[in-house]
Amino acid sequence: MDGNGRWAQARGLPRLAGHRAGIEAVRRTVRAAISHGVPYLTLFAFSSENWHRAPQEVSDLTGLLRYYLRHKVAELHDEGVRIRFIGDFSRFDEELRGDLVGAEILTRGNSRLTLTLALSYGGRSDIMQAASRLAQAIADRDVDPARLTERDFSRFLLTADTPDPDLIVRTSGEYRLSNFLLWQSAYAELVFRDVLWPDFDEAEFAAVMALFARRERRFGVRPA
Question: Where does Mg(2+) bind (predicted)?
Answer without folding.
Answer: 2, 189
